[in-house]
Design a protein that fits this description.
The chain is built from eleven helices and six strands. It is an alpha+beta fold. It has a domain at 50-226: Cytochrome Bc1 Complex, Chain D, domain 2 (Orthogonal Bundle).
């Protein structure tokens, strides 16, 4: 009885085909989520600029809090952050009728939210923690007219944004700079910038400075210990350097007193 050999499979060829198919599916998956992203406007946050923080707090607490909450911070923690005392804070900025030690919540009545907004606007503390300052700065300055949207506006970094352009009276209306690109992997006209359409109550430079101040304040609220870390950081690094020097000197002193093997036997023999 003869034993037949089993047919040898082309395992390397099958493996190569499998790898090729997986790579193709991976490319399709990446293409399905690919999008043309607009450039973000650069910004450097300076938490030592107290006047900018105060201006940002004034606009945030009297404009943004009309819809959004800021529950990562209490009113009572803001004066120290802004370089003010309680009397100055309550006189210049105020607490919107809330208690001084309350967290900052939206001033919009729940009935209006249910009737017009439907979806509760996100908390700004969470947004400021998840988004970079450059993203926030670009978002605040990049609303443009879009008649296809219910609010009549859109945004370059947040496509199909639900938020209306509450800054239009100050900034004026803007029109988009469109290019042919990808949106979620499909060819589309993508807004990569904006151009002025009408003049607002502020010049472009004034509004950019106001948007910058709002970003400063939101970043300070989202990172409440940033200023303290910046103040303590050099001292802590200096302490570690001093401890390193002392540890090295103790190391040298200790090993200077250790008797080597040869010296030990010499002393015993003596």
């Amino acid at each position: 009885m003869t034993k037949q050999n089993a047919p040898r499979g082309n395992h390397p060829v099958l493996l190569a085909l499998l790898v090729g198919l997986l790579a193709g599916f991976g490319g399709l998956a990446r293409a399905s989520v690919a999008t043309t992203k607009p450039p973000l406007r650069p910004i450097t946050v300076n938490l030592q600029d107290k006047s900018a923080l105060q201006n940002g707090a004034l606009y945030t607490l009297h404009m943004c809090v009309a819809c959004h909450s800021l529950q990562g911070v209490r009113y009572s923690s803001l004066p120290k952050m802004l370089g003010m005392n309680r009397v100055e804070f309550e006189k210049v900025i105020g607490t919107n009728g809330k208690h001084y030690h309350d967290t900052i919540t939206s001033t919009m009545p729940p009935a209006i939210i249910n009737a017009f907004v439907k979806i509760l606007p996100p908390d700004l503390t969470d947004i400021a923690r998840r988004r970079s300052p450059a993203w926030l700065y670009t978002y605040l300055t990049s609303f443009y007219v879009d008649p296809s949207r219910p609010s009549g506006v859109n945004n370059t970094v947040r496509y199909n944004v639900a938020m209306p352009d509450v800054f239009a009276p100050m900034q004026g209306l803007q029109k988009p700079v469109m290019v042919q690109g990808l949106r979620f992997g499909s060819p589309a006209q993508v807004a990569i910038g904006v151009k002025p359409l009408t003049q607002g109550s502020m010049t472009q430079a004034q509004f950019d400075r106001t948007a910058r101040d709002i970003v400063y304040f939101l970043y300070a609220v989202a990172h409440p210990h940033q200023q303290e870390r910046a103040r303590l950081g050099p001292w802590i690094i200096g302490l570690f350097l001093v401890l390193s020097v002392l540890t090295f000197l103790i190391y040298k002193l200790y090993w200077r007193r250790v008797i080597t093997g040869e010296e030990r036997w010499w002393r015993v023999g003596k």
